[in-house]
Structures are given as structure tokens and as C-alpha cells.
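Step 1: inspect the first sequence and its C-alpha cells.
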Amino acid sequence: DDGLKKALTGAELVVIPAGVPRKPGMTRDDLFNTNAGIVRDLAKACAETCPEAKLLIISNPVNSTVPIATEVFKKANVYDAKRIFGVTSLDLVRASRFVGEKTGSVGEVPVVGGHAGVTIIPLFSQVPDLQLSDAERDALTHRVQFGGDEVVKAKDGAGSATLSMAYAGARFADSLLRAAAGEDVLEWAFVRTDLFKKEGLEFFSTYVKLDKNGVKEVLPLPSNISAYEQELVQKAIPELKKSEAKGVSFVAGN
């Protein structure tokens, strides 16, 4: 059956949301055993059929599935870091919504790091005129980091975030299409970067300038993030490294 090959032939942008959703009590990492193989196989098909397509990976755990796709493309000798993205837009959408509920106006809240628990780092310091007490900041940060758990519990075994994830994925795909059409677009995504090379970390979600080829430039974190946010970054790094290593090991052993 060459249906997958036919579907991918000539593709310029491939979105991968395939996989199993979480159930109550599960972390995104618990999905690894099933979703890792799915992402590996789809990445292999893309590497063979449409190696120059931009790959948007939604399947969790994104902190591991992006390294998996990267290793598959490397094995096929078609790897280009500019074209592989982990879609973390859902975290930005949630952060913006939660802040909007508090302030009455919805603005953009940058979210960096990764896409699981403590690796999700909302940068409330970058929202103009946002005043938060320490308690409010802590509660909002936790809600952005674990907002997905609220949805999983509310659905009571019937799945995880779907509509909001579809919106977030469509938003990011639209950003890439606009960039391909020549527009200057600034987004946030989980990509290959040297920002934390000294710490031994290869992937991080941060500000990304997009162009027709994918990533035009990976931007550093703002120099004026708060001490609290700097601390969150340091806490996230070891978790991100573990997830990255797990993805790389999976491809090496399979």
C-alpha cells in the first residue's frame, strides 16, 4: 500500500498530529512508547518522499519526537534544521487566554523552553503593563504548564486537548505559509539551536524568524526576563536533555 507515499509526494508542508492522546494520570512522556514509533515511521516516509518539506510535529512528547524526526532525517542524509519544528503554539494560546481572563484583553504571551510540564516557561515579564503578585505569577505559570492536565481530567478518559491543539497547529502552519509567501513572520517553536550548547542542549522552544526556507533565524531569549523566569529555564534544561537523549536513543536502537 503506497497511500502514504502518494499523500506525501510533492508536499511542501507536513503536519504530524498522529498518535494516542493522554488519559487521566498520564504525562506526555507516558505516550512515548506508542508515539515514538509513529513519528519515526512518518518521518522516514517524509525523508524518502518529500525531504524538503517543512515538518510540523505535534505528536507528544514533542520534547522527544522532534529529536526522533531529526535523527531519522540525519540517517537518510537529508537533514536540514531549518525545516523541522515542534509545534508549541498551544502553550502560547493558553498563556494568552489565561492572561486575557485576568486583564480583559488578549495579548501575546511568549512561551519558551519545551512542551511538557516544567519545561513550559511563560514569559509574563514580556507582557506590557501586566502586574502580577508573586502568588498570581506562580499560579498562572503552573496553569500554563499543566493546563493540558485540566483538559485530560475534564474529558475523563475521552482524550486530551483537540480543538485548541487544532487551532494552535493551524496557526503555526499559517505562519509558515505566510513566510513562504514572502512575509516577515515571528513565531515560537521547538527547534534545533545553539542557545544552550554549553549546557549540552540541542533543542529549545524560542523566538524564531521564519522565511520561505523555514527558520531564518533563531533569536535568543530577551535579556530582560525576570530572575524567576531565568530560574525556570535552569530547571527546564535537565528535563529537556533527558527527553532529547531518549528520542536520540530510540532511533539509534530502532
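Step 2: inspect the second sequence and its C-alpha cells, then contrast the two.
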Amino acid sequence: MQLPSALHARLVAGPGATEPLPVARDPSAGAAPFLFAARRVRFPREHDFFEDGDVQRHLYLQDVLTQVAEAPERPRVPEFTCQVAGCCQVFHALEDYEHHYHTLHRHVCSFCKRAFPSGRLLDTHILEWHDSLFQILSERQDMYQCLVEGCTEKFRTSKDRKDHLVRRHLYPADFRFDKPKKTRGVPSTICFGQGASRGFKSTKKRNKRQ
């Protein structure tokens, strides 16, 4: 698109050019009814020109403050303690108690009393810690399911699963879902048949008595 020569010259000249742009008027329209010249006008803040805007701003802010003031407060109740046996946590609001209960008392293992944040983790814990069949199968195949919901990866050991969680799902390096299992020591006595038993305890005390 090619600009008119006068407009092109004004744009090239930059903001310093003061010559008005040529306006093509219809000769039959006659003379203009008035003359107009643009000029910059500055009003002080208290000028009547800004009155309508100030009123609208005041009403808007008043409405916002009214909505904030009318925000419902959390219902407060007399101080009470958690009703679960052995828990002495004190609460002042029902919402705090509900959060505490769902976090620490809702998903609790009935065998070892460990609490979990979700039912899925509780089921995983019961399977891996309190199911003897799981212990047998885990020695032959991958049985440790990824803890992230939707991930179908399985692993041979819980350590391999933790490495997967840290590397793939960006879990913290110190994350620990499993507590180290206690290894059973050598029994103090073993029966070798016919009612005879032989012990592995120290015989120092026995020798002293003799």
C-alpha cells in the first residue's frame, strides 16, 4: 500500500514536523462551521473532570471491603481433645479436628497401628508387611508396586522402588515408606528330637555355679 506523498513526508520528518496534514474537502460543503486546534490540557486531581471516576472508584472499593467483611468465619467450639484412644491432641475448631483425624486416624493398620495418608498406601503396607504369601512371591518375581497412583511399574525390592520414585516421580531422597524390618536372631534353644534341647547361650554362669 502506497501512502500519500504528504503523509509519507510527515512520517519521515518525525515528530518535529508541525505542518498539518492536508484534508480533502468537498467543494460543495462550503466553509467549515468552526475551527478546531488540538492542544494539551492538564487538570489538577481535585478538578470536576475526575469527579465521576472518583465516585465509581469509591463505590467499587466499598463493595470489595464489604465482601471481605462479610466473609464467613470458621465456627468456633469449646476446646476439646481427640476421641481416639491414646491421642491427646487439643482442638479449637471442627475443621482442625477433621484434618487431624483424616491424616492420622482414618487409615491405620490394625496389625502395627501405623497411620497412612490414603487407603491405597494402607493396603500396600498390609500386603507387603503382613501377608506371608507376598514374602514368598517377592523372592521369585517383581512384587513391589510403585506408590504413585496410575504408575504400573513393579520392582524386586523396596530399594529399587524407592530409586524409581526419586528418579522418575521426583520424590525426596530421604523419603521412606518402609521401616527396616527386624531380623530374627538365633533362638536360645533348639530341639533336636527326643525331648533333648541344646542351647546357644553363654555357659559362663553355669560354670560359676558349678
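Step 3: confirm your contrast with the notes below.
The two ends are 121 Å apart (CA to CA). Strands lie at 76-81, 90-93, 107-108, 115-116, 144-145, 154-155, 189-191, 197-199.
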